[in-house]
Specification:
2 strands, mainly alpha, globular, 20 helices, 68% helix, two-stranded antiparallel sheet
Length: 503
């Protein structure tokens, strides 16, 4: 049997092939469009992108609902900034630890069912976190950590499904739709969290919105989404699964992947810090200037900063992702290094505006929100482009593993520790418990974000030196004759050299 020949499997979850596998029909299929090559119709492929976008929106909406009600949580549990930062850190830690597991599974088994199981678990745990009693802050930390389990199952896999449905410019456009959900979902998290908390006069209700929407996402995945054939739209029939260690060695030698991952780590550091602390920082600035009263209610703090910051995040996210993709596609006509150069420009331009936003917070709220708007717009230019870089410099059979590895590194060195680091730094700089020093210490610690953005821009500039070579190498990749492959059989894997397989 040829390595390029596909076989069906009666147990789809344990098959490394797709639900839509069909026998190879020879050269006459080469003229068909990319949707039919993937085994998924054009209409279903488009629906799949929108469903994955919807789930991604829920993912980030849930993640930043906590940030939208953080002043309420701090007041309710009587915790300091360091412990508040742990809420994001424990989530990111569990998320990044399990990402490689789901990346390994996503490269070998049915991705749709993996996502369904993860989203169901995430919805149940999120609902459970809304019932945390006042005396047990540790229970809220535990449940927020478990939420990362469900989100890891989705984030590592969803982009690879889009990659198996579309190629080239169309893939970039579909990824931009998918990544619109990150800033929009984040902004909705702030808005829904703060507004539901205000309406119910209790922050617990803010955590009860996304679980029901998550169960709807599971139903849509089960009954609408179809697993595409891996690499079929790129006419890469000769590709096969290799061992996990072989994948890791190959990725570690991919300079574009490594450098863009470090660049994206800077993006994660900055967005993670701002996501958790920006509404609280803006609220404290309003208290210091006298335009807002401090928290007096145990269950609800009267704050409109989460609503405003959420609205800005939605608008800047859409503008940033769209403008980043458009500029990148225009520059691709002039240079193959356009993508990392646009990412570098986005980070380097965001740094001064974020610095000015933090510095002007006490003096002028209008200037602060204007600089936040500009800084977040440039920062958001990276999302879809970074994902596209990964997909075209990595061969199809290693993409879920590459997504997982990028998630681990970017979160381990980025937003896993940055919220906690900012909180601890704020506590250490605070000279008293006055409202002024609560604001000032957080202001000084957030200045770190501008420096990290500049470092991230440098990594993307370095990526531009290698991206053309690595892309050509991925597109022309042919497995070596003695490279070990993984042969799934009855749900189990065995490693054999290619030379032992009859061609």
């Amino acid at each position: 049997m040829s390595l390029g020949q596909h076989t069906s499997d009666s147990a789809p979850f344990f098959s490394s092939d797709s639900e839509a596998e069909a026998p190879d029909e020879g050269p006459e299929r080469q003229g068909e469009d990319e949707e039919s090559a993937s085994g998924v119709s054009g209409v279903r492929a488009l629906l799949t992108v929108f469903i994955l976008c919807y789930v991604n929106l829920l993912n980030y909406m849930d993640r930043f609902t906590v940030a939208g009600v953080l002043p309420d949580i701090e007041h309710y549990f009587q915790i300091d900034d360091g412990k508040s930062g742990l809420l994001q850190t424990v989530f990111i830690c569990s998320y990044m630890v399990l990402a490689p597991v789901f990346g390994y599974l996503g490269d070998r088994y049915n991705r749709k069912y993996i996502m369904c199981g993860g989203i169901t678990f995430w919805s149940v745990v999120t609902l459970a976190s809304s019932f945390t009693p006042q005396q047990h802050f540790w229970a809220l930390l535990l449940t927020r950590g478990l939420v990362g389990v469900g989100e890891a199952s989705y984030s590592t896999i969803a982009p690879t499904i889009i990659a198996d449905l579309y190629v080239k410019e169309k893939r970039t456009r579909m990824l931009s739709i998918f990544y619109f959900a990150i800033p929009v979902g984040s902004g909705l998290g702030y808005i829904v969290g703060s507004q539901v908390s205000a309406a119910a006069k209790d922050w617990h209700w803010a955590l009860r919105v996304t679980p029901a929407l998550g169960l709807l996402a599971v139903l849509l995945l089960l009954f609408v989404v179809r697993e595409p054939k891996r690499g079929a739209v790129e006419a890469r029939a000769e590709l096969h699964q290799t061992s996990w260690l072989t994948d890791l060695r190959a990725l570690s030698r991919n300079c574009s992947f490594v450098l863009s991952t470090f660049g994206f780590t800077a993006v994660a550091f900055v967005t993670g810090s701002l996501a958790l602390w920006a509404p609280t920082f803006l609220f404290r600035a309003a208290v210091v200037t006298g335009s807002k009263a401090p928290c007096v209610d145990e269950a609800h703090c009267a704050s409109s900063e989460s609503l405003l910051f959420g609205a800005i995040t939605v608008v800047t996210g859409v503008l940033g992702v769209f403008s980043g993709v458009q500029v990148s596609q225009h520059l691709r006509k002039k240079t193959p290094r356009a993508d990392p150069l646009v990412c570098a420009a986005g980070l380097l331009l965001s740094a001064p505006f974020l610095y000015l936003a933090i510095v002007f917070a006490q003096g002028s709220s209008a200037a602060t929100y204007t600089f936040i708007f500009l800084g977040e717009t440039f920062l958001s230019m990276n999302w879809a482009i970074v994902a596209d870089i990964l997909l075209y410099v990595v061969v199809p059979t290693r993409r879920s593993t590459a997504e997982a590895l990028q998630i681990v590194v970017s979160h381990l060195l980025g937003d896993a520790g940055s919220p906690y680091m900012i909180g601890v730094l704020s506590d250490s700089l605070r000279k008293s418990d006055s409202f002024l020093w609560q604001f000032r210490s957080l202001q000084l610690s957030l200045l770190l974000c501008s420096f990290v953005a500049v470092v991230g821009g440098a990594f993307f500039l370095a990526t531009a030196l290698f991206v053309e070579h690595d892309r050509n190498r991925a597109e022309s990749y042919v497995p070596a004759a003695d490279e070990p492959i993984v042969v799934p059989k009855s749900g189990r894997s065995a490693r054999v050299p290619v030379s032992s397989v009859l061609i």
